[in-house]
Amino acid sequence: MENFIEIAASAFSFNPFVTLGKEWMLITAEKEGKANTMTAAWGGFGVVWGKNAATVYIRPQRYTNEFVSAAERFSLGFFGPGFREEMNLLGSASGRDGDKIAKAGFTVAREGGVPYIEQAQTVIFCKKLYAQQIELPLFTVPGFGEKMYPENDPHIAYVGEIEGIWKKG
């Protein structure tokens, strides 16, 4: 990973409400030798089952879901401000319809066989530990699940153990 340095999880700090909620991230995975990515604004970081972990949420119909579902590992890419146009494209276009990564002006690279977007400022590599589709009857606020999922297509939550964090040097 040229131009990147690995940092310890204990040295990684960011404001998730800005980084995820406003700047967004890319979830990237590979299936059958092909990489795909998508923009995400939902997620979480912390300690789960005694491991540093990231949780991401992907709707079942998203093309990237096929890739994360099939892969043992995935990456999360963070770009900072100034990438809104690219993030919008990668969140609205489908990789089924063409090479949206190249169209965004980005390049796929790999570390240990895991794809990531080379232009990211920070990349987190995750080993998939758990996957479960959100179940509407389990929402504790009446009507909230139906409000969030009027098409009855709740996200799949993926919990990944953080195996490495790399920042541009």
Please give a structural write-up.
- There is one protein chain.
- By secondary structure, the chain is of the alpha+beta class.
- It is built from five helices and ten strands; from the N terminus they run βαββββαβααβββαβ.
- Strands 1, 2, 3, 4, 5, 6, 9 and 10 form an eight-stranded antiparallel beta sheet that branches. A two-stranded antiparallel ribbon has the order 7-8.
- Helices cover 20% and strands 42% of the residues.
- A hairpin with a 2-residue loop joins β4 and β5 (51-58).
User: Biggest sheet: strands, sense, closure?
Assistant: 8 strands, antiparallel
Helicity, in percent?
10-25%
Radius of gyration, rounded? 16 Å
Beta strand %: 35-45%
Provide a count of the helices: 5
- Give the total of beta strands: 10
Please state the structural category. Answer: alpha+beta
